[in-house]
Specification:
The protein is mainly α. The protein has one domain. The protein is built from eleven helices and no strands. Helix 5 packs antiparallel against helix 11 and helix 6 packs antiparallel against helix 8.
């Protein structure tokens, strides 16, 4: 859509002509409209050409309605996104992870090692927890871990649903971007046509008769071009908001996917492994204690402590518990970062909701 511009026309001799007339005539020709047009898909290009042909600069509502449907849909989209985000209980996962880490801290692998009663315990009559007490405590902790694991599994399901919802938001966001780009291209093409074709014709009429009414009509036409230019700018601002939202949606979506994967690893691999090794350690401890008479327990403990199989099993349990706690800490850190990203996206949604039409 390259058009050869005529040399600037000197309008200083005409009284009452708006300075914008000379400014538009003297402005260099740009390919802004064509650049925007070429980014559109073929259906959107056809739509842009149709919108440009229907634009009537003399009709205020025609200019105002350019891209208005996309802006209103974008505003409703922002309200919907904000409503969905506010309905989420974003603190539950963090609370569950914190509770699970505190529960794991109550299990000290060293307590599973058989120990001789110390001299002071014997002297003051203090006794270590009985086997039944240990079993009861560890069983209670194991049940709590199992319960939290079930809650995490439900949270994982919600995260996967959120990933799908965010994918829909991303696709809608892309549709809004193309809709705004279509309207912008239409406005730019109409503006270029008005400046390069219609404006010189109206200036020529003014120069021929130099009538006050013709000058006013020329000024009105330039004001209409200025109004269209402002409308194009408003649409470009909306388009920038949409453009900034896309990577934020993707960032939160990917964070949710990572959270879901880490929860999957914790509830499917680490927690069952931890429970299985805990049960094995308790079983070995119980077998050892019940296999010896009470008066030979001290000597049996010495031999048991030196047993390689027990040491290996205890080492594995310690490693599993450490790995589980590390994984939960990583989950907690990622969850905290994700919630900050969601708060930022919520601020963007609020901005859309208040600043769109």
């Amino acid at each position: 859509m390259t058009v050869n511009r005529e040399p600037a026309i000197n309008l200083e001799a005409l009284n009452g002509v708006s300075p914008l007339v000379q400014a538009y005539l003297a402005a260099p020709s740009t390919q802004e409209a064509m650049k925007t047009y070429e980014t559109l898909s073929p259906p959107a290009q056809s739509r842009a050409l149709l919108l440009a042909s229907q634009l009537d600069l003399s009709n205020f509502e025609s200019v105002l309605s350019l891209g208005q449907g996309s802006q209103r849909a974008l505003s409703q989209f922002a309200d919907q996104m904000l409503s969905q985000m506010k309905r989420k209980d974003v603190t539950k996962i963090g609370q569950m992870l914190d509770t699970l880490m505190q529960t794991l801290d109550r299990v000290d692998p060293a307590e599973l090692e058989p120990k001789k009663p110390s001299f002071f315990n014997k002297l003051f009559g203090k006794s270590s927890p009985t086997l039944k007490q240990k079993l009861t405590d560890f069983e209670r902790i194991s049940i709590q871990v199992e319960r939290i694991g079930i809650q995490l599994e439900r949270a994982q399901f919600q995260l996967l649903n959120d990933v799908e919802m965010l994918e829909q938001l991303y696709m809608h966001n892309n549709d809004f971007f193309e809709g705004l780009a279509t309207s912008i291209a239409a406005g730019q093409m109409k503006k270029q046509q008005s400046i390069e074709t219609e404006l010189p014709a109206k200036v020529e009429i003014v120069q021929m008769n130099n009538q006050p009414l013709a000058i006013q009509q020329l000024n009105d036409f330039v004001a209409q071009i200025e109004r269209l230019d402002q409308r194009i700018y408003d649409l470009q601002v909306s388009q920038q908001v949409v453009l900034q939202t896309a990577p934020q949606i993707r960032m939160i979506q990917q964070a949710n996917q990572t959270l879901a994967e880490k929860i999957e690893f914790a509830i499917v691999t680490l927690i069952p492994l931890w429970k299985n090794q805990l049960a094995m350690m308790l079983s070995m401890n119980m077998d050892q204690q019940y296999s010896q008479l009470e008066d030979r327990l001290a000597r049996a403990n010495d031999r048991f402590t030196e047993s390689p199989s027990f040491e290996v099993q205890l080492s594995k349990f310690k490693e599993t518990q450490h790995e589980l706690k590390t994984a939960l800490q990583d989950l907690f850190s990622l969850h905290t970062k994700t919630e900050k990203d969601k708060e930022h996206l919520q601020e963007v949604a609020e901005m859309k909701s208040t600043k769109m039409i």
